[in-house]
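Long-time lurker, first post. I've been practising inverse folding by hand and with some scripts of my own, and I keep getting stuck on stretches where the structure tokens seem ambiguous. Below is the full token string for one chain I'm working on. Before anyone asks, I'm not after the true native sequence, just a reasonable design that respects the backbone. If someone could post their per-position residues I'd love to compare against what I wrote down in my notebook.
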């Protein structure tokens, strides 16, 4: 009897029953039915179905979150790991895993998360417009006579930059445009400084920057106003915002990015000692090159002076050259004789052929040429004359003037 009562009192529950009981407790809790939770996104994943899965965490705990596709389609930004957000939804239990999770209805950026989203949006838009194109970046001058600086006059950054420029290249003119580097007025003042230095006429390179700080403190250098003023500058701009790990939109647009303000000053002007050392090296190389060239010329001159022409120039000019001239004259005369002999033979052959075809040769054989005495027309037919006509008969030697008395057809 006692055993039966014990078993009835302690009948075990199934996992599903326990999970369902806990789920009902959470589902019926008024506070958990519509709750806002803030935290940092981690383990973000978007399923093929379009649902979003991620974990909200802070320094103490973590909470699984699911956002169904119907809700995720209304987001105005893309959630990413590390982003600070505020999520509205309800807490319930996922039966299959027996784990509670937040079913998100809305997700909004929180604090730095909102700034990060704005930063990414502006960066992508300016990138598409070509403001970050490396092909449009200007080359920094090697030795600028005047350097313009746009920064806060009260910060340590300006003291570092001025000190480094004066130490590296004494005598460089430095023009400071004092500007706020954080706060609402900062973008306008930074933009005004860049444009004023461009209008001034003698500035050859501009440094824009400040010391390190939080994202909010550096935000002026992530504004579109400052980015476009750097892009429109006719003078090369060095961006020196924050510490080495800080990166702003101004860095992307500028012609050169320096990791720190001190590094920007080093990029703006060369080190005088290094330049002097370089000039000394070049001077030594030039001197050595000139001396080697002179030595080579001296060797060539000595080699030439050893030749016979320079030791006995009269023999080379009078003896050998005269002998060469006589030889060439002899060859010329022989050549002319050969040409004349060859052409004379050809002339004899052609003259023989011409003599054979000549009418004079025909006359020499007893023939004659009869022409009208007045017109000179050749008479080749008796029908062409009549009694009384005067004819001229050409013989091999001389002519006869005849009168036709009669003709025989």
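-- Answer (accepted) --
I ran through it position by position. Result:
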């Amino acid at each position: 009897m006692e055993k039966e009562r014990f078993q009835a009192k302690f009948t075990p529950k199934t996992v599903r029953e326990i999970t369902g009981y806990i789920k009902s407790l959470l589902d019926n809790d008024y506070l958990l039915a519509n709750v806002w939770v803030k935290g940092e996104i981690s383990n973000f994943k978007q399923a093929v179905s379009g649902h979003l899965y991620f974990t909200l965490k802070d320094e103490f705990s973590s909470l699984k979150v699911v956002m169904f596709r119907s809700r995720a389609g209304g987001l105005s930004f893309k959630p990413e790991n590390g982003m600070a957000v505020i999520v509205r939804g309800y807490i319930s239990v996922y039966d299959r895993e027996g784990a509670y999770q937040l079913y998100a209805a809305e997700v909004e950026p929180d604090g730095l998360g909102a700034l990060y989203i704005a930063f990414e949006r502006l960066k992508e838009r300016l990138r598409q417009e070509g403001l970050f194109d490396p092909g449009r970046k200007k080359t920094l001058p090697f030795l600028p006579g005047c350097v313009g600086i746009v920064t806060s006059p009260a910060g340590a950054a300006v003291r570092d930059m001025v000190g480094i420029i004066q130490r590296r290249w004494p005598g460089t003119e430095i023009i400071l445009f004092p500007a706020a580097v954080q706060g609402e007025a900062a973008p306008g003042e930074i933009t005004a400084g860049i444009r004023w230095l461009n209008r001034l006429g003698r500035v050859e390179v501009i440094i824009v920057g400040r010391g390190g700080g939080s994202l909010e403190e550096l935000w002026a250098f992530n504004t579109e106003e400052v980015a476009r003023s750097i892009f429109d500058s006719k003078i090369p701009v060095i961006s020196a915002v924050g510490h080495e790990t800080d990166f702003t939109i101004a860095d992307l647009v500028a012609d050169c990015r320096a990791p720190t303000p001190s590094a920007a000053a080093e990029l703006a002007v060369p080190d005088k000692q290094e330049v002097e050392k370089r000039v000394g090296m070049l001077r030594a190389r030039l001197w050595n090159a000139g001396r080697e060239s002179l030595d080579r010329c001296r060797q060539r001159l000595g080699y030439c002076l050893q030749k016979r022409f320079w030791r006995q120039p009269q023999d080379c000019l009078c003896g050998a050259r005269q002998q060469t001239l006589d030889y060439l004259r002899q060859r010329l005369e022989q050549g002319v004789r050969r040409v004349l002999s060859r052409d004379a033979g050809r002339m004899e052959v052609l003259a023989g052929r011409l003599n054979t075809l000549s009418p004079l040769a025909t006359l020499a054989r007893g023939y004659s040429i009869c022409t009208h005495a007045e017109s000179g027309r050749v008479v080749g037919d008796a029908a062409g004359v009549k009694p009384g006509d005067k004819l001229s008969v050409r013989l091999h030697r001389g002519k006869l003037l005849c009168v036709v008395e009669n003709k025989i057809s």
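A couple of notes from the structure itself: The mean pLDDT is 86. The chain has four domains: 2-110, 118-134+144-270, 279-318, 366-403. Happy to go over any region you disagree with.
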